[in-house]
């Protein structure tokens, strides 16, 4: 994947050098963000991180993938707030599928907050199906918890 070009953006593997920017975008985008340490641990454990940057070098988005048995688990997909609605999320999903298929895996699994309507629409349009719900999975406001919808995308024989 070393530097796949997409019009005015490119994809590259996430490295330690990206983590300050990744953590900053994460804090900007989410009320309950991953810490820089979460990203460090993911890379240290051999998970796949992908960064999307504008040709100017500005970080547009990223994702983190963890192989689990016969499928890939999409642990985090984030598009910087100023780049949302630009197709970056779709491009990151396509790259996640490309990486997963390249590893011979059968599908992609993820959790998403039911309140994250924009992400839900993206995943549903892409072809993910809701297969379950994890009760009280995410932290929420006022020390409460929010469920997670579990979604799966199963790879077809012909590709994305």
Can you walk through the features of this model?
With 160 residues, the protein is of the alpha+beta class. It has a single domain, classed as Gcn5-related N-acetyltransferase (GNAT) (Aminopeptidase). The chain has four helices and eight strands. Strands 1-2-3-4-5-6-8-7 form an eight-stranded mixed sheet, with helices on both faces. The radius of gyration is 15 Å and the shape is globular. The two termini are 17 Å apart.
Summarize the structure.
With 160 residues, this protein is an alpha+beta fold. It has four helices and eight strands, in the order ββααβββαβαββ. The model has no long low-confidence stretch (mean pLDDT 92).
Number of helices: 4
The largest sheet is:
8 strands, mixed
The gross shape turns out to be globular
Q: Number of DSSP strands? A: 8
By CATH reckoning, the class would read Alpha Beta
What is the assigned CATH homologous superfamily? Answer: Gcn5-related N-acetyltransferase (GNAT)
The helix content, as a percent range, equals: 25-40%
**Could you tell me the mean pLDDT?**
92
Helix/strand/pairing category: alpha+beta
Total number of domains: 1
CATH topology: Aminopeptidase
Approximate strand percentage = 35-45%
Ends distance: 17 Å
Which second-level CATH architecture applies? 3-Layer(aba) Sandwich
Unreliable spans are none
> How large is the radius of gyration?
15 Å
- Strand order in space, largest sheet: 1-2-3-4-5-6-8-7
Descriptive keywords:
160 residues, alpha+beta, Aminopeptidase, 4 helices, 8 strands, 38% strand, globular
């Amino acid at each position: 994947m070393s530097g796949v070009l997409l019009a005015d953006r490119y994809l590259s593997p996430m490295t330690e050098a990206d983590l300050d920017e990744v953590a900053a975008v994460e804090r900007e985008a989410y009320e309950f963000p991953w810490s820089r340490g979460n990203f460090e641990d993911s890379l240290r454990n051999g998970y796949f991180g992908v960064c999307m940057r504008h040709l100017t070098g500005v970080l547009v988005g990223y994702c983190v993938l963890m192989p689990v048995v016969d499928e890939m688990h999409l642990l985090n997909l984030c598009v910087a707030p100023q780049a949302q609605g630009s197709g970056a999320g779709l491009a990151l999903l396509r790259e996640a599928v490309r990486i997963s298929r390249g590893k011979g895996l059968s599908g992609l699994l993820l959790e998403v907050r039911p309140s994250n309507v924009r992400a839900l629409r993206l995943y549903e349009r892409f072809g993910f199906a809701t297969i379950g719900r994890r009760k009280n999975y995410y932290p929420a406001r006022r020390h409460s918890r929010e469920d997670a919808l579990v979604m799966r995308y199963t790879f077809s024989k012909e590709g994305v």
